[in-house]
Design brief:
Blueprint lengths: L4 H14 L7 E4 L6 E3 L4 E5 L11 H13 L8 H15 L9 H11 L3 H8 L3 H14 L2 H20 L1
Parallel strand pairs: 1-3
Antiparallel strand pairs: 2-3
Helix pairs in contact: 1-7, 2-5, 3-6
Bound molecules: zinc ion.
Zinc ion binds next to helix 3 and helix 6.
């Protein structure tokens, strides 16, 4: 499948953001309608943009943003798309720092049993060890002024393309 212009813009941003060490790190998926990182393949999955709901925030999105805002003074200046990409980059950048004994599956199961409702489940989800590490990496990245400039330039190009496609 040919890459859309939007994906090329994301690819450039990812390249600028973390350098050339991740080749072929973007994959287009119809499996999800969201961004996700596949740490095993060191890839970020981006949705097929057709039908992608840019303005609709899910409960998970809301809790993700709230958590991000709580760890970064700059997060509010950026869109959910940018924050999501940075979070996924965080997964790729921190995958080697996750202790072997950490069992995500097990932690998720405990979470599902403990959470009283969906909102709480989403709130706790972003505090899972690997999720937290990913967001903290992204927050640290955003704390650098030159990086914020990169992210702003990415956003401008991304949304300009989105509106005129
Ligand atoms: Zn994540």
């Amino acid at each position: 499948m040919a890459k859309s212009k939007l994906n090329k813009i994301i690819e450039k941003f990812v390249n600028d953001a973390i350098g050339a060490s991740y080749d072929e790190y973007i994959t287009i998926t119809d499996k999800y309608d969201e961004f996700s990182a596949n740490a095993d393949d060191s890839k970020i999955c981006v949705p097929k943009w057709k039908g992608y709901k840019f303005n609709k925030k899910t409960l998970a999105d809301e809790e993700f943003e709230l958590y991000f805002y709580s760890v970064s003074n700059y997060a509010k200046e950026f869109s959910l798309v940018t924050l999501s990409i940075l979070h996924e980059l965080g997964h790729l950048a921190t995958e080697d720092d996750i202790p072997d004994e950490y069992n995500r599956e097990k932690e998720l199961n405990i979470l599902c049993k403990k959470a009283k409702n969906k909102k709480e489940l989403n709130r706790m989800y972003f505090r899972l060890y690997d999720e937290k590490m990913a967001t903290l990496w992204a927050a640290k990245w955003l704390s650098v002024k030159a990086n914020r400039k990169l992210a702003k330039e990415f956003e401008e190009e991304f949304y300009a393309t989105l509106l005129h496609k």
